[in-house]
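Quick one: structure tokens for this chain, please?
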Amino acid sequence: MRRPVLAVALATALVTVVPGTAPADARPPDRGRLDVLFVGAHPDDEASTLSTLGQWNENGRARVGVLTVTRGEGGGNAAGTEEGPPLGLLREGEERRAVGRAGITDVHYLDKVDFYYTVSAPLTARAWDHGATLEKVVRLVRETRPKTIVTMDPAPLPGQHGNHQEAARLAAEAYFAAADRARYPGQLRGERLRTWAPGRLLMTGGATGPTGPACEKTFTPTDPASTVLGVWAGRASARNGGRTWAQVEREAQRMYVSQGWGGFPDAPADPNRIGCDYFTQIHSRTAPRAAAAGPAVTGQQEPLPRVADYDAWAIRTGLPALAGRVPRVLTLGSGASRPVRIDLDNTTSAPQSGTVTPNLPQGFAAEPASRPYSLAAKATGSVTFTVRNTDPSIPTSDYTITTTSTTGPPDVRKAALELVPVATLAQTPAAPVLDGAEAPGEYPGPEFDLSRVWEGAACASAADCSATGKVTWTADALHVLVKVRDDARGAVLGADDCKRHWRTDAVEIAVDPRGDSENTSTTFKTGIFPAMADGRPCFERDADHRQGPGPRTAPGMKVAAALTQPYSGYTVEATIPFTVLPATVDPARMGLNIFVYDSDTQDKTGQTRLGWSTWGGVQGDPYRWGLASLPGLDPPAVAATPPVLPGEAARSVDSPQSILQAAATGVPLAGGPAAPPSATARIVGRPTVSGGATTFRLRATGPGTVHAHVWNGRTLGSKRVSVDRAGTRTVTVRGASGTLTVAFEARRGGTAVDVARLPG
């Protein structure tokens, strides 16, 4: 158990800093400085920490800001039909209102696209151009000079969004890079910034504890060797009328209406029922942690590719204590066998030998039971076992691996094998008739139980939510039948709103053609709504190789559906041509899963998620899907192509709120540089208002693009003007009240902003 300092003292400690060094005239404007910077991927990522950020701001007088890499264009929308950049700007407004409850006024966006839910940090790094985005984060750290950086967990834990992982990696790398004169030296020479060394790097989570004020003093760290800070959310906020910070945070969370959070229940009224936020210290420049001595030889189950990538990143970044945190998990077909490699590392300067033994519980067997090894000094190696599941009823198996060595005690490591369902799919002599009903003999082969919950509330009964499925095939297509029992219909969406199927009642079919995908960018995933407002079913593809409307992204795919009358559920049928899959099917090992989303409300939110193979976050984890064989199939050849990821993000130059902030703080838009004096622009004189429009004069010193907006709490009008040469021009934009905001993108790079209050 650890005894962290209380919130007020903690805030004081957090603003202790190891200062950077640079000429005094290189300092950015003080009005943009921060004490604490939270780095997240999407609007609302900071939502669960607002009680702490608010306390640091109010009680510790720490100026807190937020850096959000994207504006969340890829999320759902329970408030309307906006998507893409318009949804991103809507979510920016929600975030600014929410964090404002915690006294936060500075929210910086990097204008990267929120392309879809993925569990892959490497995929996110490619989509965001890691190097270019890191340069932006480093620039913002050097401009705002926070004493503490707080971020999310960079580890690929089950269900952990890859965007969250990548945002945390960027924060950690920027923590070091911002202090290094060799990193992005152009920011120091050309932009007159200076290096900056934040004092501490924290990530959210890392402990469990009781409710009530004791949670700050008595808790259990996830890693006993880690330094964890606890901040109780039960304190009263003077700024917020004496309500507890837990209540303030909940009120703030309800601002994220587009994400379905508007109906969140009240926080407990009794402070003794309120717990702590916990933060794990990843690094501190004032208290470096000594490396712990390890065993002579370690033996660990082979990692998933994402885990190997994460461990290598942690070591490369200078955070070796983060490596090895992610449990080593592999999947195994129910009743099947697979090779399992154990990786060995001799940590000593002497040769070592011994044995490796997987200590499997009942229901699993290893061949052989133990293997010998011999390693030279500082060498690595491996041994491999064939592991077989002998009891298909066991869903998962935690086990240990014991590695003996010539010197020192045995090394004992934890690992896990998770069972996934398997099926042999039968060929049907003729393609089923798509009419929303099953005719005799249409779907030969096994019936899948789709009633297991993988996320959300438990079903009250089989009538509340349950499902079965059948999958068969012909030479050119898969054919899927899903029968759903449901006692209450969720929201019926408009015919023009066929997207984000998890918002209401829907079926999702996921296919991994080769059975070896690391993430869903090389898979096929389709969401099917049984009936839209026009009474017809519709389908789309989401978070896969080619996301978008079904007819465009999956030509030749067909669906049919029928609702029972009176309503007690529905039936969905789908034909999926093999040629719309992102690769040629492996008939011996095709990944397959079927999910059912159940919503009993009208607020465009789901309550329960069912499926065939069920693990938390399984929709993004192809390795956890079931395995299907299609004996006798000679699949059509499909040429592999790169995934098509959404690329259009909301931009700060199109956000009056971001322009207003940049004008107030002096920190340029989107983590970019300021436009040079030889290529900038500003408003000249006072704007005039007439006929519902605003006219102003703009003086530019070089070519670029003007983004003008009239804003009075909402955007009344916008106009984009191309400037080819230096000079003064007149611009008219719709809207006649509030504030004129102007962003100028210099053709040579960089931005400038200017604002003017409108008369009246």
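The two ends are 61 Å apart (CA to CA).
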